């Protein structure tokens, strides 16, 4: 019987549809991937085919869906946050076995280049001919097919996959474990690169899923005070629900005064993390789009000698930008302020593999309730287009697609765990 | 009116007595310190006199009190874990003010030598003419008078003291904050140097106050599983009370098997911390004194590529040792085992100043309940001799002396907070 | 007999004059410093008075002398690069002695605040009431009197001073050792923060004294290829003279192509260091002032996952800037490019004390010829005004003022050591 | 035509012979490796077959050849220091190509386990079923066939091999590049783990090839003074020839006094590296075998707060040891001395891959003359048995076997480059 597959395709701005698509092959070329070029062609006997258990909608998917990138409609299957079960393994796969339940880092890494050998899997030199770094289902990231689908192919599987040690126990915590493919490590990486440690005071800019995952990671790292800033009240409430302090950035254009109201002193924290990126808006009265607004606020918010982690995405080209300079990726940064404070800055895609096994251990041993923090909601594949829309409108929810209803949660009432807790 | 003072003096093996002693002076010489030599003499206008609020009995005091060192009786005021209020400041003190409530690191550091400038305040090159590193009230550590007394002098006060930002709030958490002078940073340093991070599995050897402080620090650092080993059942129960797993080292001589029973696999953890030191005993059947037994167990317990923190004290000379080689500090270490596993090892006095302000923030913001973890009991000065005896007999208690009953807790029933919690 | 003093005073744009000034006092207030405010007032019994042996003219002095800052004329004695002999020590000075020959870090640090305890002496919290970080003879840096004079006061002397172990040997290498107060550590810090290590390929932007010191530091750190970029041919020749490769940034606006011509591949190095700062100019055809031009080039030049050190000064306000945004310190940075490459960025004043003793050892043991690399020329105090002018016009010389001719070199022919070597 | 092969076989204590052996296969099992067990069996389509260009005799080979291990005679082809040209590539090899000239790290690493992903290729969890870490031609290291042969198989080739960018240029520097497979990175790792940096003072214990490579690495790292200790005068002369200071450990049993005679002060260095390991002998009068003698000396030699790198091999079992405890790997270590000085210790096999590409760059750009430092002598395969004997007798030579005379140096007079330089 022919194997079938269905997945979420980007059809054009604000238009995502579930389509019949080919069942994955252990190769990458124009017959297996509609967006793969000749240069990307390769045999993938080092890969496996996964039955997707869960696959999450990410804020960075929205950049494409809002039409802020050069991606044409009708070609790309979306989705780079994937957890699945191995149903077929290539000839050269040695350690991963059929039946293994695994988390897939959103970075596609070869495990053989200089960057991968250093642990910099976010900038693998081999998996994307156009530039360093590849991902599933993302424009300009190597032509690999996305995972918001029933089945997906994962190359270099022995290197990329994180196997969960106990399948049954993993399924019990799948709402948390599904976040290991991207936003938990991404938020955590932002916190780690900003130097968060036990006792730190921290400012997290942005209360979307990455911001909330970052704030929760700061708590895991022992931060004494975690302050989250956003203008979306529902998302701020979500942050408060797990013990964060919050700032509504619309209320003032003086971030230091807002921080001082919480921790006193000069209103400066040890570490700041920009979880917003280039689609930033001004604070206070002027909330027009200002691509460097959040980064500049992070500099203001950080004490001398502090560090600023920047997991929020900044792009080399932004055709949809309001400012002319921003179209070519030039932002108006208050560098002199950062210099006077001896700050350092850390950018780039998170190398998920540096963190995912330790963070899995934290989940499996109940050290963190990351799914509750970001308010996971499990949905079916056909609900994905509506979820894209709701998320775009600011829902304080992390949507997790379960294409086969392996969790048993699809279609069931899933009251926000935090609301439940507050009752 | 003449100012008076009283303090705990070491009179000989197993004999500590409260004696009238001179009120502190801002100097160190043979008139101000009975154990200070001509070489140690210095003017201390950089110092302050503290009214002692709390001062703790430490396991390392016991090495002296058990007669395991060369300290003669009748000279030394004990005590290096001190918290107090400034009542007099020397002429050259610029930033600390009379009335400030401060934690005193047990390391006495000048803040001016190459070691202090690197942050290595545990090996200050100026405060002890005999060797690197000084402390209050300790044999061979520079002749400085101990703080288990009503008043004590703290030199280089601008450098050494940690001022609590809010005096009233600090007094409310004084049971926790008193641990900042030594065992909390010491346990924490052991954990940090062993590489403990979110998700780590950890083995802590020893459930005395430092071991418990270390275990609790590992939790603050986000460890997924913290296993504590000891042979004292009461202390192990204390460790379990705040969420640790435990191993009774008398039950087996195969530490890997005991660990595997908890976390599975080969029974190896990411990090191990030796919180026992040279007064170690064998495990399993043979629990005679074996100075390297705990260190060798830590090597067995640690996975390849792991780190071993060694905050437990090892001495250069141990006249009371059973083994001949151990008398001169030579221990029988299974170095080949460590080498085959590519382990690294971190020794020495903890440089408290590297950590105390961040750890204070963690206490003040309720990120850690360190006093409960180590089972603090506040006593009066006159109860100290009895406390030394009880502690030597293995009481799972951290004794905190409050010479002026400024906490109001002296003489009051203080049920173990953990027992209370379990009711 | 009254003690006299003379020093270099900033009188207005492009106008430096040698003036009679008061002999230093062990205090800082409006009677001892014409630019010190009431808030800055303090007794300095922790200080010493130095007879200045050498004091260097720095590129950052030029920012003031060119009138690019808010400094009014007629008040400030310039000079923050100082080496001298102790002629008087305050009451609270314990370890530095009269007669000691010492290097003075340009950072003025108290040694007692949280920043100093971390080793971040460039952002001391106590020595400048206006903001973190103080320096001698510099606008907005705490009101401390500069050292381009016969005598100068150095506060917190036990903490700040680096004593040379052997005075006679030190005088033999004084041309090198004089660079320990600023540009050698500053160039080195740029290299270290950019991750330079044995085998690295490096791009150093700027061939002024800091750029040359940085390039030479990269060699000391074992870099395999050091490429220096500038538009001043004499300075580029200086860089070539000690083994660097060079790029004339006027020749092209494609820095990657220029680098590829030297090392091949994509024209990207492991590490880049911006030794120019905010007074940057465009490359290729358009060499107008473009404050972010050098930083953007550094991003282009660096490989994915690389680091960019930024010792070059960026200011919070630049009233003399051409661009309107730049007047308030807003620069047009290609942040998206850096993000796509996962770069990190390190800014701020160099904490000299982290490095100066190790770098002194490198000089004393002939591991580096730093004076030759930056082309030191020793001059008398009265030659300083002319030297300021020559340096402003791009002389490839590092001017070192010897106010008492203690080196015996003043007025003597000092052929460029590199020219000599090439003969 | 059948492909043939010849290699160096361990026949018994002090007996190495060149034997006809099978041509390599792309597999590991009992038919391809006489010492591989069923558990080690695997298909190696990820591997390549190399024509060996150079393969070096290592000090650790001598442990086997002296009969200090459990290795039986007549089975093992020796050799883990290999450089070669790819002549056949397995099906799963994607990036390495036939014709590539490559350095082979002596560690055999899968590139897919948790240790390899962390960069800890010295303790790969997959390539040796018996314990963490594998190597070519070594007892208990996974059963892989050694490379002192004409041809050898290298598994996981895309991960393990370092390709030289320019074959012709590489052949010109092959005497240096051949050292990248082990002793250069091993000596360098010892230095790096001991914290050697520009300006450091260093003590290197042992002037065999690893000790000399370490000393030369310390210079590359910018150390100000490098002191090498040994009792072999020829080897000490070799160390002096490239600028090291030396100590003959037979001359005194007070290492601090010997160091003080060179650098003054207390005779303590910043960093010490033990390049001897368990076959150590006492210093001064008593030069009997004392397995911990060198390590204890390293502790004495290191200043408080310093680090001790231990690349020298310590074994878990040493049946040939003189001391009873040492037979089971228990050594008499002066741990108390290290603890009093707050030392840290770094052990284990060097993960070559962390360093080899940067060190290759240092060689190719003439930053280091490592072959001259260790006195490389190129010999033919048939000369290997004699070279083993000469090396065992203390020749200050690093023997490099060139089985096909691809260097053209076999049989030619090769005056010691250092002797030549001194003429």
Question: What fraction of residues of chain A sit in β-strands?
Answer: 15-25%
Overall spatial form of chain A: globular
Approximate helicity band of chain A: 25-40%
Most extensive protein-chain contact, per-chain counts: A-C, 45 and 45 residues
In whole angstroms, how far apart are the ends of chain A? 50 Å
Largest sheet of chain A: 7 strands, mixed
At the fold tier of CATH, the topology name of the largest domain in chain A is: Quinone Oxidoreductase, Chain A, domain 1
Number of helices of chain A: 16
Unreliable runs of chain A, pLDDT <50, ≥5 residues? Answer: none
Structural class of chain A: alpha/beta
CATH architecture of the largest domain in chain A: Alpha-Beta Complex
Give the count of structural domains of chain A.
2
């Amino acid at each position: 019987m022919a194997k079938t597959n269905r997945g979420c395709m980007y059809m054009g701005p604000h238009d995502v549809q579930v389509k019949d698509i080919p069942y994955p092959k252990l190769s990458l070329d124009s017959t297996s991937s509609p967006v793969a070029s000749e240069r990307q062609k390769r045999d993938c006997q080092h890969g496996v085919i996964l039955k997707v258990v869960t696959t999450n909608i990410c804020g960075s998917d929205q950049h494409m869906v809002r039409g802020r990138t050069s991606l044409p409609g009708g070609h790309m299957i979306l989705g780079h946050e994937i957890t699945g079960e191995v149903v077929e393994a290539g000839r050269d796969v040695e350690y991963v076995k059929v039946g293994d339940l695994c988390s897939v880092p959103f970075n596609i890494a070869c495990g053989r280049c200089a960057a991968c050998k250093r642990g910099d899997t976010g900038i693998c030199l081999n998996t994307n001919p156009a530039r360093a770094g590849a991902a599933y289902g993302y424009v300009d990231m190597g032509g690999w097919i996305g995972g918001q689908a029933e089945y997906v192919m994962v190359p270099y599987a022995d290197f990329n996959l994180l196997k969960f040690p106990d399948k049954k126990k993993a399924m019990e915590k799948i709402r948390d474990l599904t976040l290991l493919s991207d936003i938990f490590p991404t938020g955590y990486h932002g916190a780690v690169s900003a130097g968060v440690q036990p006792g730190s005071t921290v400012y997290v800019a942005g209360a979307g899923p990455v911001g909330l995952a970052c704030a929760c990671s700061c708590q895991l790292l022992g931060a004494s005070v975690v302050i989250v800033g956003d203008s979306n009240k529902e998302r701020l409430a979500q942050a408060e629900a797990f013990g964060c302090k919050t700032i509504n950035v619309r209320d003032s254009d003086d971030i230091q005064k807002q921080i001082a109201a919480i921790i006193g002193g000069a209103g400066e924290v040890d570490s700041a993390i920009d979880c917003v990126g280039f689609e930033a808006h001004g604070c206070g009265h002027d909330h027009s789009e200002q691509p460097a607004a959040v980064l500049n606020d992070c500099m203001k918010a950080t004490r001398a000698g502090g560090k600023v982690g920047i997991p929020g995405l900044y792009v080399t080209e932004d055709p949809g930008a309001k400012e002319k300079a921003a179209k070519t990726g030039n932002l108006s940064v208050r560098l002199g302020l950062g210099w006077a404070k001896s700050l350092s800055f850390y950018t780039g895609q998170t190398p998920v593999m540096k963190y995912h096994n330790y963070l899995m251990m934290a989940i499996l041993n109940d050290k963190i309730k990351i799914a509750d923090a970001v308010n996971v909601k499990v949905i079916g594949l056909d609900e994905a287009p509506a979820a894209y829309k709701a998320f775009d409108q600011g829902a304080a929810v992390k949507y997790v697609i379960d294409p086969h209803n392996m969790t048993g949660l699809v279609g069931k009432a899933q009251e926000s765990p935090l609301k439940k807790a507050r009752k």
